[in-house]
Each structure stands twice: as C-alpha cells, then as structure tokens.
Amino acid sequence: MPKPGKAAQSHRDKHVVDMSKIPPEDRWIPPDPEECEETADYTMRPSEAPSTERIKVRMVDHVPTSALVDFAIVHETFHKGKWRLVAKADSSHDDEVHIHQYSRRTGQQYGGTEQLIPIKAIEDVDAGYYLAYERIVENWAANRARWNDV
Amino acid sequence: MSDLNRANVTRFVYEQLRNRSFRSKLKVTSSEGATPIVVALPSDPTSTLLSELDAVGGAANVVLPVGDGVLIFGMHQADGDDTEDIPTLTERCTVGVFLARVVSDGGRGRYKFRGLGSDHESGRAELLGLAS
User: What is the pLDDT of residues B95-131, one digit of tens each?
Assistant: First the structure.
C-alpha cells in the first residue's frame, strides 16, 4: 500500500472540514486517502517562455483506478533572485477547481479566486486539470503581464 | 505526433503526466527534489539544449518527439572530464543527431560539450524510455 504524502494528508484533513459545507446533493465522495499517492513536483518551462518562467505540477492519484483526486498547477517567475508566485490552479478545496492570481508588489494573492469547474464527481477533477493547463500554461504570458502590473 | 512544434509537445507531456507509466520514466531529479522536464525538438542546436540544462541546474529529463510519441533521455552535465576518448559535440550538432548518437551508443554515453556555450564541459546522457 503506498504511503499518502503531505498533499494526501492535507486532502484528508480538508475533506473532513469542507464536506460539511457542501449541500448533500452536490457532494462527491473522494477516495480513501490511504489508497491515494502524491506525485513529485514536475517542473517545465512553458512553450516559448524565457528561462525565468516555470510551471510546477503536483498531483494526487487514486492508485487502484489511476483517477486524479487532487492537483496543483503553479506558474512561478524568477524575480529579484527568487521564484515568485504568478498564478495557481488547484482543486484543493474538494468542491471546485479554481485559479489564484498573485501580485508582484505584495507577493500576496490579488483578487478573489476564479472557479474553473465545480467538482461534483471525480471525473470533474480530471476535466479541471486540462482547463487549468489552458489557463496557467498556455496563458502564461498574459498571467505574467498581469502579475507585473499589480 | 503529427504537428511537431514545441507547444504541441509540451501539451503532450502535460497529458502524459497523468499517466503513472510515463511518470515512472522521469528518473532525473534536481537537488531541490523536483523532477525537471525539458522539451527539445530534433532541429534544436545542441547548444540550446545545454542552455536549457544550465537553467534548470544541470540535469533534466529531456523529452524528444519521435513518430507518434516521445523519447525520454536523462541528461546530467558535469565539470571537467579529461578522458580523451569520449565524443566531442560540435556547434553544428542538432539535438536529433546528438540523441540518435546516444541511442547508437547503446542508450547511454558521456560526451564533451566544449565550445557550445554551456556552463559545463561535459556530461552524460541516457535513454530512459519511450512514450506514445
């Protein structure tokens, strides 16, 4: 049995808290965290981006079915000697896949989160992964420009 | 892969990251514990690939499109290699030719990078797998 990583543990903790807030008819039941496994961080440069840009991907899989249970796709830019958050898409609140945008000036999240897709079944997490790819990876230049302006 | 451009190969890699079998072939990790991936095209100059490796700390999983899939190579740069009888890459060498050489060398080898603008003088490459 694979050991659950920090994200899987976090997933389990959030599962306990968040599920009580979701209307019963819209709930999906995440797989048992003991059957889930967290991947490493995969890093890549977006296509046609300079080496100051990178994307980090981390996932949690349900091992018996290979279904995607949780993920984060993060755009970072190298600025003034360190990697800074530009934008992040994740499914870490169980009920939706959403995007966070960040500010160059403050280093904090800028504005509210934007929902990409509600999660009502495990298949929605997988669909959200591809939507997140388009908004974070393929849209990296616009996200970087916005980050620079706020 | 019908349309051989960097954006399509990059998207293919993100799709494949959902696949446990593909992920198991990405064996090169950085000192930070991450798994760096570099997309290279056969027509890229080898100096471009070496610059990419410099940018990610000198080691990466290199993904090269071939046919309907990709080949995955592990590459590690190194400093100083006085061994005389290892191949020296020239500035005219493309990534496609270089990695074909790695395959013809049995899937792994050591190579000199002198004169290619890399921060490192030599390195090794190893074929890690095929995904389609």
Answer: 999 999 999 999 999 888 766 676 677 889 999 999 9
Within-domain flag for A1: no
- pTM of the predicted model as reported, rounded to 2 decimal places: 0.86
Residues B15, B1 contacting (CB under 8 angstroms): no
A61 with B38: Cβ contact below 8 A: no
Structural domain span for residue A69: 6-149
Cα–Cα dist A95/B43, whole Å? 44
* Dihedral Cα B53, B59, B61, B63, nearest 10 deg: 20
Residue A60 Cα to chain centre, angstroms:
11
Residue from the list A48, A51, A129 with its beta carbon closest to the beta carbon of B6: A48
CA nearest to B19 within chain A: A66
What whole-number distance in Å separates Cα of residue B110 and Cα of residue B102?
A: 9
Closest Cα in chain A, distance from residue B71 (Å): 16
For the stretch A17-73, pLDDT in tens is: 444 555 556 677 888 999 999 999 999 999 989 999 999 999 999 999 999 999 999
Contacts of B52 in chain A (CB under 8 A): 45, 51
What residue segments make up the domains of chain B, in order of their start? Answer: 6-131
Residue A145 lies inside a defined structural domain of this protein: yes
Structural domains counted in chain A? 1
Chain B CB within 8 Å of residue A148 CB: no
Out of B14, B30, B36, closest to residue A133 by CB: B14
Q: Out of B50-64, B67-81, B108-122, which region has the weakest mean confidence (pLDDT)?
A: B108-122
- Residue A8 is predicted with a pLDDT of 47
A18 interfaces chain B, CB cutoff of 8 Å:
no
List Cα–Cα distances, B37 to A48, A88, B9, in angstroms: 15, 19, 12
Q: Considering the domain boundaries, does residue A33 fall inside one?
A: yes
In a domain, A79, yes or no: yes
